[in-house]
Design goal:
about 375 residues, alpha+beta, globular
Length: about 375
């Protein structure tokens, strides 16, 4: 991507007067101070906060089976995993967003277009009727049209062990243990590591599924076909170890609401489908004391996701079986349109910021 830097040509100049010389020396100094101040302001926001925001948006788009007991934080496309032979899924996300504050600055941030292509390799295996083990490796690059200083790259891995309290009821409580190790951040393009952090989590998922008549769906192993409205909740507490800043505890609560049009007698998998999901990622961050001070953050990120699955006919041919094979070979293309607002309030004034991220995401999924 072009960085827009201007190339300057050195020219011979006539002797200059003393006031001009002072200006020549003073103006670059002001520019340098301004750049350092801007950089310090951006660095007041811990880089892991920005990563948590991006991960939450990707997790919200990760699953086509939105009303299953597996929450956004589970990060593995359960529907695709069940279809695979080895339990692996490969995802590509192609977001193209309007970002209102690329530097996560308290004031004066740059509004710009953001591209954040991301690839994920996930794996899931049922160890028993009660236990499921999942793992994921993720890599992404983040680029901004008008703010090159905000560009970054990220790679991380996660592992999660989830317990289902009742295998015959997909709405039962599902406690989990999760370990993120490590989360690596780099300068473009994966050239120099800038930060590393590890996280250990304990939490649970809970979902309440209702039909179109607002009656609770009966206890069954798979209530997806009968679910129209789904209320979900994920709660967790995490310990995060950061190499460049004080470590911290994170208490997270994620309520969610999903609407999926009801399955009718004329339901056809080859037709276009859509659903709407709204969740609010809420985090309270408690930092270890550093220099006699203890920082406290409130992180809030409402995310609205409208998902569209195109009809098989868009992929050519007239025979349904051939259309379906083409859909699968193309990665089951899906378009998610997201609107996300991130807001951070902190007792450290320089860390406060607000950021809108709005735009479509193309998602591709392959199972093997």
């Amino acid at each position: 991507m072009l960085d827009g830097r201007n190339r300057r040509t050195l020219r011979k100049a006539a002797p200059i007067s003393l006031p001009t010389a002072i200006r020549v020396q003073f103006v670059p100094l002001l520019v340098l101070v301004s750049l350092l101040t801007s950089e310090a302001r951006a660095q007041n926001v811990s880089s892991d906060i920005l990563r948590d925001s991006q991960i939450a948006r990707a997790d919200a788009a990760a699953s086509t089976d939105r009303h299953s007991v597996v929450s956004r934080n589970a990060f593995v496309d359960q529907a695709a995993t069940e279809e695979s032979k080895l339990g692996f899924t490969f995802n590509f996300f192609g977001p193209l967003l309007f970002n209102s504050n690329a530097e996560a600055a308290r004031a004066g941030g740059t509004s710009t277009i953001e591209g954040n292509p991301e690839v994920r390799l996930g794996w899931s295996k049922k160890l028993s009727n009660w236990l499921t083990l999942s793992a994921l490796w993720d890599a992404s690059i983040d680029r901004f049209v008008r703010s090159n200083d905000a560009d970054s790259d990220t790679a991380y891995a996660r592992m999660r062990l989830q317990y289902t309290s009742d295998p015959d009821d997909d709405q039962s409580y599902a406690p989990f243990f999760s370990y993120y190790s490590p989360n690596l951040e780099f300068k473009p393009t994966f050239s120099r590591r800038t930060a590393t952090f590890h996280s250990v989590l304990l939490g649970f998922d809970k979902v309440f599924n209702y039909g179109s008549d607002w009656k609770r769906v009966a206890r069954v192993p798979d209530s997806s076909r009968g679910t129209v409205w789904s209320f979900g909740f994920t709660g967790s507490i995490a310990r995060r170890y950061v190499d460049s800043r004080p470590s911290l505890y994170i208490v997270t609560a994620v309520p969610s609401l999903t609407y999926t049009p009801p399955v009718t007698p004329t339901f056809n998998l080859a037709d276009a489908h859509w659903n709407v999901s709204f969740e609010v990622d809420t985090r309270y961050r408690i930092y270890d004391q550093h220099g006699g001070q203890s920082r406290r953050d409130w992180f809030l990120e409402p995310i609205l996701t409208i998902e569209f699955l195109p009809p098989f006919a868009w992929f050519g041919g007239k025979i349904k079986q051939l259309q379906e094979k083409r859909v699968v070979s193309h990665g089951r293309p899906t378009v998610d349109f997201q609107v996300a607002l991130t807001q951070l309030d902190s007792n450290e004034p320089g860390a406060r910021y607000r950021q809108w991220a709005i735009g479509p995401t193309i998602k591709l999924t392959w199972s093997f």
